[in-house]
Amino acid sequence: MASTSYKVIGTRPIRHDGTDKVTGRAQYGADIQLSGMLFGDILRSPHAHARIKSIDTSQAENYPGVRAVVTCADLPEPEQKVADLGEGDVNLYHLCQNVLARQKVLYKGHAVAAVAADDIHIAQEAIQQINVEYEVLPPVLDVLEAMEATAPVLNDDVRTDSMAGEESADPTNVAKHFFYEKGDVEKGFEAAHVVIEREYRTATVHQGYIEPHNATALWNQDGQITIWTSTQGSFMVRQQMADLLQMSESKIKVVPMEIGGGFGGKISVYLQPVAALLSKKSGRPVKLVMDRAAIFEATGPTPGSYIRVKMGADREGKITAAEAYLAYEAGAFPGSPVSCGCMCIFACYDVPHGRINGYDVCVNKPRTNAYRAPGSTNAAFAAESVVDEICERLEMDPVEFRLKNAAQEGTRRVDGVQFARIGMRETVEAIRDSEHWKAPLEGKHRGRGIGSGFWFNVGLKSSVTAILAADGTVSLLEGSTDIGGTRTSLSMQLAETLGIAAEDIKPAVVDTDSVGYNDVTGGSRVTFSTGIAVHNAGLEMRRQLIERAANIWEVDASEVQYENGEVRGPEGKVFTFRELAAKVHATGEPITVKGTSGSENQAGAFGTHCVDVEVDPETGKVEVLRYTIAQDCGTAIHPAYVEGQMQGGAVQGIGWALNEEYVYDEQGAMLNATFLDYRIPTCYDLPMMDTIIVEVPDPQHPYGVRGVGEVPIVPPPAALVAAIYQAVGVRMRELPASPPRLLHQILQAEAVE
Amino acid sequence: MAKKRVVTTTINGKETQFLCQPRQTLLEVLRDDLALTGSKEGCANGNCGACTVLCDGKAVDSCLVLAVEAEGVEIETIEGVAPVDGLDSLQDAFLQQAALQCGICTPGFIMSAKALLQEQPDPSEEDIRFYLAGNLCRCTGYDKIVRAVQDAAAARLQV
């Protein structure tokens, strides 16, 4: 457990932005109103795959109330260039085509043209006046079919970029082949007593944030662009805009509005460049907000996948070898998180011999993007389900199997990375020792399952500025957009460093001109990495306060110490933080400090979940009766928001496991692009979500922070299907285990009997 | 364009007149014309509850109400919940319980919960979960939201 000597860390102060958010005053992206503002709408492709023969915008341009119409012709010719967005790379050539289609549309909902008008209704009417002539092409929607040589090919410029050496001369849908090997896999399987090999499928699922994508742009007459938008990375928006518009970043200012959820889906730009082009053409600020159907059809969900896992274990339950084949749907353009899937799939365990092949495959669906621990949930569903079958075959307790094989400090993953201090074992022990695991589960059609999961967590770069005020409060300017309470987790770290109250820090998320560079809010990095920047700023403020006190007392700075929010000098001289702050203006220069981070990386996070379900064998409906999440969180800065991340992530995983999927017709039209038909969990579907915070501090952070946001989504599908198997004897190898799919399996099993 | 209509209504206790097109929803008028942006648009088809307001005391999705239907109706939005000198016990409970992360769904939850506690001052967990099932939250997993409503109910009963 973490040190109990902290004064602020580990407490539960009210979040700094709380009052604004419970009174409706917080300004989210769509809430902005600018003088003279126009409203825009986007014309989207009705086809999943088609060549654009012509676009005629003349009627729309003459429609009363229309101020501007744009198409891809208004964007500069794109370059082949890869940009790192922190949670995945993006090829600018493809991003440009995704923002506004060029020669082809590659999924239903692909943006083709846009209109700005006096009000949203006029804009909606006007896009219907744009005439687009398409040559409809056959779509390919399934990942394995898309890999066939005879499949329709989406992108003329894509060749297989392979780690295994194969070359493709012709255009292909297989954009990347990842390959990792460790030890001698064949020898490992020979040593096994039990070998299980199974195939798994997962459906495309969406992050499902409640706030629609939005962008309001002003392309000013002096050539400066300002974008008000809700984003996970205002600096990433600036970079993508500069690349797409082929202009200097200094011409673009991004003002991050409050963000209503992202989960990885609000990093890539969609509307921002289009709003800017519309503003340039109309000379007015333009607001664009997506409707829910467009969010489903045209932003980046997480890939559907095909995964094959083979694992062997000896009589004692030690894993001897493991092999995986992962094929992920990239969507329209390359860039699925299959590489992350490869690196995570066996990460929970010490696998002596392993081989992993991963394929990034284009299909006629929206270009996928990061979704909370991108790629890991699909992979864990497959690997953990095989582990459950091995345990059954060996008649071994799944907790015991996990403890026997748990990865720990020094374990080398199949992809070659060696673990630093991690807490996989501790999360399994926490479940083993929990009330939940010890409680008997009685009743018909009930079952209990467990599952474990891993996510890397990243470091990357952050900058903050801290400003001392005369009343002893400190303003904290940060550039990490706050998606779930990081203003507070960062303020608490600064307060701890300075020895003052969390309430005496005044955090503000500011625009890209007003703070140093910050990487994306993603990869579970903000409390860790921006936290290090904050700590550094706090140390610098302490140094300056010591210097100032030494000057006032006319002693050497080496005789002055900073302790518990007080500055102490010789002969009992002391200033409280407040007393010294009050003297700053009269005794010298203002105290304004900066802090940066960027060299540290995280050790990764693990979680183990336990779930009880009851299955209705008449309908296939799964009821979650009880759920416990154990997670290595490092030092929990604000335990309530740490619990919130664990609960929220697990519930997204439950939705993924039991209900959520994109349903397509054969032409590639999504049939369920509403929250009614794409069913995310409601509070009526769930019990309370119990949490066990396991604290294995990450030594790379001054307070031992470990990112907590992403890993909780990883274990639920595997844990749930294990519980369903116990309840009704059916192994679900395809997600979601929704009532129709599960009922089908139950009926099939009954027919065999 | 169809002619604009004058609508007379009461919003957060104040008699209000506005002009609207017949095709405008109540949500659109609240947000774009009356600058009451606390009610959020998440889906615009009644599935997510982020735009929940009270119409004559009943929780409704304002995206499903035409603005002209507000004639003579008493409307309460999130902006009208807090008393002058502090927060409502529901707002307080949401903060104490850390029952929000991104916060976009919070106004809708508070409005629905307010209607619930007016109808059922002492709801069970099951009652709360059933009543709030029309409000979607993607961040919290609902645990802390349910607890916040329980706390607010207890606080209201004590008064």
Provide a concise account of the structure shown.
The complex is a heterodimer of chains A (753) and B (159). With 753 residues, chain A is an alpha+beta fold.
In words, what does this structure look like?
The complex is a heterodimer of chains A (753) and B (159). Chain A contains 20 helices and 29 strands. In chain A, the strands form seven sheets. In chain A, strands 3-7-1-15-12-13-14 form a seven-stranded mixed beta sheet, with helices on both faces. Chain A has a six-stranded mixed beta sheet with strand order 9-10-18-17-16-11. In chain A, α15 (486-498) runs parallel beside α16 and α18 (639-658) packs across α19. The longest helix of chain A has 28 residues, at 526-553. The two termini of chain A are 51 Å apart. Chain B has helices at residues 26-33, 89-96, 106-119, 125-131, 143-158; strands at residues 5-11, 14-20, 52-55, 58-61, 74-76. In chain B, 33% of the residues lie in helices and 16% in strands. Chain B is built from five helices and five strands. Chain B has a five-stranded mixed beta sheet with strand order 2-1-5-3-4, sandwiched between helices. With 159 residues, chain B is α+β, with helices and mostly antiparallel strands. The interface between A and B is large, with 60 and 60 residues.
